Amino acid sequence: MSKKELKQFVCQNCGSVYPKWQGKCDSCGEWNTIVEEVAGGGGFSNINYNKRKGKEIEFVSLSGIQEKLDRLSTQINELDRVCGGGLVSGSVILVGGDPGIGKSTLLLQACSKVADLPQRPEVYYISGEEAVDQVRIRAKRLGLEKSPVNLASCTEIKDIITTLEKSKASVVVIDSIQTMYLDEVESTPGSVSQVRACCYELIKLAKRKGFTLFLVGHVTKQGEIAGPRVLEHMVDTVLYFEGERGHHFRILRAVKNRYGATDEIGVFEMQDKGLVEVANPSALFLAERQGNISGSCVFAGVEGSRPVLVEIQALVSPTGYSSPKRAVVGWDSNRLAMVLAVLEARCGINLSSQDVYLNIAGGLRISEPAADLAVALAVISSLRNKPLPADMVIFGEIGLSGEVRAVSQPSLRLKEAKKLGFSNAIIPQGRANDKKFLADITLHEIGNIQRVINLLD
Ligand code: TYD
Ligand code: MG
């Protein structure tokens, strides 16, 4: 095959392949993302099946002896939990996040804790972004310079693989996959084929040698791990490290995990000595709450296996625009539109001449529909300029006919509320079975959103 025939055009955003260059990618709709690359990088294509005869594979039954997964604790509880209870050997974890959010800091801290374990696992931290001295400065700042972590600054995948092949590595960090480079692939580091090929080689090695591989990945403006979404399919676990720039806390969220639940979050606080675990996030999210303010209420949510109480703030003000503004931070704007429509249609609350702003205090992102009721109450409270009782928590999903629906794990939510000193709760009807825990909380069970409005009057 001539070299010319091996060229292909690959979208750097979604990885779609085209035979000819075009301005717009048909599959993701992005403009100017298609770049010429050489096909075959990473050993995916051009497989000649005649060269080697295939072996017959052996099929087995679904049941069998379940090997217990060998998990290594990072000694950082929040990280262990998000990974499903520790690091599984041979697994590959992609850590994505905005620049400066703290990915390198978190992984350096984890490396140092693992390296300090009494069994002295071999830990390798390979940085392609920073020079050795820069990483050392960070380690010193974090007070970790004495840990026996093997540090190197390198971007050549071949050199990395040759080195790790001889090692007895337990944990390897590659910071970041976008800086890594494989000779055979004729495109620049960070391009889809480079990233995919490097990732493929490293994953093969991790599986063969049985070490846990952390890959740091950059995030694009759209909030996806840069360009190649393909990466997410190749790895076992995808973690996103998020947080608002102005806030000091950071949330590590599992979005894919072959070895654990995906709705877990880990909460950290960025301090001047690095990331510190937050064992009780509710207390942190509610720390700056001011009582007796209209438009604010406390939602008792559940993130993964853990209850999290957060403040939901709404501001409703007469609009100066021809169509009123709706702005949301930390929640789904479509859900806000739905809640507002239900309030208008079922409760006769007119919001068409009002701007509505909604904010989840503290920079947390909530995805649970269970927050509907709390959002509705925050909006009504702001509209009427009537504060809700400061010791009240709220949860419940709202249906289109205005009914308040049950949500999962009500007793877990209520127990957390009780622990934090709340004494009133508005909850969906028929959900207070575990009353024995709840002697100190007055429950207002409601079946319809109209009822709750009467409750406020
Ligand atoms: P970093 O881990 O370099 O981010 P990433 O690898 O995701 O790009 O984090 C850098 C930021 O964290 C930087 O803005 C400074 C801040 N930081 C602290 O506040 N305290 C610390 O102890 C460290 C090491 C960093
Ligand atoms: Mg970094």
Give a short overview.
This protein is of the alpha/beta class. The chain is built from 11 helices and 23 strands. About 2% of the residues have low confidence.
Give an account of the 3D structure.
The chain has 457 residues and is of the alpha/beta class. The chain folds into three domains: 7-40; 71-279, Rossmann fold (3-Layer(aba) Sandwich); 283-456, Ribosomal Protein S5, domain 2. 25% of the residues lie in helices and 26% in strands. It is built from eleven helices and 23 strands. The strands form five sheets. Strands 8-7-9-10-6-11-12-13-14 form a nine-stranded mixed sheet, with helices on both faces. Strand 12 (249-257) and strand 13 (265-271) form a beta hairpin. Helix 4 (157-165) packs parallel to helix 5 (192-209), helix 8 (333-347) crosses helix 9 (372-384) and helix 9 packs parallel to helix 11. It is globular. Residues 41-47 have low confidence and may be disordered. Magnesium ion is lined by residues 103-104, 129, 175.
What's the overall geometry? globular
Determine the N-to-C terminus distance: 79 Å
Arrangement of strands in the largest sheet: 8-7-9-10-6-11-12-13-14
| Class by alpha and beta content | alpha/beta
The total count of strands amounts to 23
Number of domains: 3
Range of helix content: 10-25%
Q: With helices defined by DSSP (H or I, 4 residues minimum), what is the helix count?
A: 11
Rg for CA atoms:
26 Å
CATH architecture of the largest domain: 3-Layer(aba) Sandwich
> Looking at this structure, what is the CATH superfamily of the largest domain?
P-loop containing nucleotide triphosphate hydrolases
Portion in strands: 25-35%
Give the mean pLDDT.
86
